[in-house]
Amino acid sequence: MFVKIYNFIIKILVIIMPFSSLRKKIRNRLLLRNNKILVHKKDGKVISVKKYKGLKIEFKGQNSTVNIFEPCVFKNSSFVIGSENLVEIQASKYDICNLRIPVVMSFGSNLIIGKDFSCFGVDICMHAEPKNSVTIGDDCMFSSGISIWPSDGHTIYDINSGKILNEGKEIIINDHVWLGIHSKVLKGSVIPKNSVVGANSIFTSSSSRGGGTEYMQACLHG
User: Fold this and answer.
1) Which of 159, 179, 197, 199 is the most core-located residue (most Cβ within 10 A)?
2) pTM for this structure?
């Protein structure tokens, strides 16, 4: 309760400040606390950094951590991080291009990406309902125009009880999955390992069927 009151008072002070530059400094100092970008080096050392090449990280809340395991090469990627969020990206020998969390992550949400991930254009939308979760396995390749939504992006309440009617559901994309151009993965989806999701597809549920291993090995990453 104290934290909520404290944050409310700070927000009021920030609003009434006369100069935008001063407002920004106070907001960053008092509201955006205990956020970390941790880089895990190949020799096992872990260092804290303010930024990472090719990846713009904007913190909009508190107590969030971004873990990056090297080697990891980002190009034109950006994350908007909220409160109590965890983002973890394992080492990859491939480029990660245009990977975005375009809207601030909701409270308690997590994004975990496995080893040797590559992509050419992916939006992971983790806003609205709290505690969204997306897990992507090892050796996955995503094309461009990909959208991943563990929630509906807007909350619907029962008018009588106030209960949330459309809670988010975890998305799990297992190892060695190829997402084709403009494909969409919606909440509750579980994509089995060695699968191909074709271009312009919408994946909306769980599937127990996997793709052919030999076919995937021939296609993924050449």
Assistant:
1) 179
2) 0.80
